[in-house]
Design a protein that fits this description.
Helix content is 0%, strand content 36%. It has no helices and ten strands.
């Protein structure tokens, strides 16, 4: 007689509260926060297998268009929020002649409006932020004011 290939399989997604029916394989989810989801499949004889899926919510990159590196402790650096969400990001800043005045792989330290340690003049500069991971570059201008 042929072998019985049917398997009784139970599925369980967790955290279960995020799913309308955590026992279904196919899910639709509205992700509102960074979260790791777990899918456990339990078969005959309580044999189980588990896999994980991590969802990362990427926050928008809203680039300030001015900063004032004058040492007063207010807006002294070009703070670009949420860049840490984009691994591999590069930031480049150019003067009006197209000369690169700042470059960074990642953005571990916000730009202070300097070139080789010397303050740059009050002016408008142009930036290219490559977010990588399939996102288009973010471009625009930033003005140094004092």
């Amino acid at each position: 007689p042929p072998a019985n290939d049917s398997v009784n399989l139970r599925l369980q997604w967790s955290p279960a509260a995020d799913f309308s029916n955590p026992g279904r394989l196919t899910q639709t989810l509205v992700a509102m926060r960074d979260q790791t989801y777990t899918l456990t499949a339990i078969g005959d004889g309580d044999c189980s297998a588990t896999d994980f899926m991590t969802v990362k919510i990427l926050k928008p990159v809203n680039v300030p268009n001015a900063f004032s590196p004058n040492g007063d402790g207010i807006n002294d650096r070009w703070e670009i929020p949420n860049l840490l969400d984009y691994p591999g990001v590069t930031v480049e800043v150019f003067n009006r002649y197209g000369q690169k005045v700042f470059s960074s792989n990642g953005y571990p330290r916000p730009w202070e409006g300097t070139l080789n340690g010397s303050p740059l003049p009050v002016a408008t500069y142009y930036y290219v932020i490559n977010l990588k991971n399939g996102f288009p570059p973010v471009t625009g201008s930033v003005t140094i004011i004092r």
